[in-house]
Design a protein that fits this description.
The protein has four helices and two strands; from the N terminus they run αβαβαα. About 20% of the residues are buried. By secondary structure, it is mainly alpha-helical. The protein starts with about 25 loop residues before the first helix and ends with a helix.
Length: about 110
């Protein structure tokens, strides 16, 4: 990321194997991106299945420094269909993850 400091970056999106939040160093990557002044905001997509409380808390903290643009892609809008589409996934965990993030975000409106 140090090499990005001198570039005029307009859009910066982070990806890793389709789901950034599964990266073992997600929070470290997030915190390093926040430090790069030339990155105007941090953007990524997630299905929220791995969006733990710790990761949500880190996102809210990062959002205090730099805007976070997060697209949440739900596989389904109900548990039955979700189970058919996302084998081994848990719709209720995903919904709880999203609710937690929204509750934390509402405390700080910068995210």
């Amino acid at each position: 990321l140090a090499n990005l400091r001198d570039l005029n970056i307009v859009d910066f999106r982070i990806f890793w194997l389709g789901e950034l939040t599964t990266h073992p160093n997600f929070i470290d990557i997030l915190n390093e991106c926040v430090k790069v002044e030339s990155i105007p905001y941090i953007a990524f997509d997630t299905n929220a299945s791995n969006l733990t409380k710790e990761k949500s808390d880190a996102l809210v903290e990062a959002g205090k420094v730099k805007p976070i643009h997060m697209l949440i892609s739900l596989d389904a809008i109900n548990e039955e269909t979700y189970k058919e589409i996302r084998k081994g996934g848990d719709f209720n965990i995903v919904m709880d993850n999203i609710k937690y993030l929204l509750e934390k975000r509402s405390i700080f409106s910068g995210f």
